[in-house]
Amino acid sequence: MDTVILQPKLLTAKEVAKLLRMPLSTVYYLAKTRKIPSIQIGRIWRFREDEIIRLTHGEIRSDRREESADKQKVTNKKEVSDA
After folding, report:
1. Within the chain, what is the greatest distance between any pair of CA atoms?
2. Angle at 46 between CA 71 and CA 33, to 5 degrees
3. Which of 13-17, 42-46, 47-51, 64-68 is predicted with the least confidence, judged by mean pLDDT?
4. For residues 34 and 76, what is the distance between their CA atoms, to the nearest angstrom?
């Protein structure tokens, strides 16, 4: 029996812009600043459809938001230990 590996559907920036109803330039900005999950291959950006859908439903957070939350936790710990 052959093993079937399902590949996630990749969207272009233009498709994401249409799906999220925002300008294409905003999609590129959000991708470059890691505010939406994306893959860059050379100069080309691709977005996993399942991740974009989950992002719109609030099921996942972008890397950037998680990093900010982690930095805030560290800052709060330092403030507590300094007191």
Report:
1. 64
2. 30
3. 64-68
4. 24
Q: What is the pLDDT of residue 36?
A: 94
Distances, alpha carbon 62 to alpha carbons 4, 6, 24, 33, 46, in Å: 29, 23, 18, 10, 15
Model pTM score: 0.65
State both tokens at 20: 């999220």
Candidates 34, 17, 29, 23; CA nearest to 68 is 34
pLDDT of residue 31 exceeding 60, the answer is yes
Tokens of residue 83, six digits: 């007191």
CA 42 remoteness from chain centre:
18
Domain ranges of the chain: 10-82
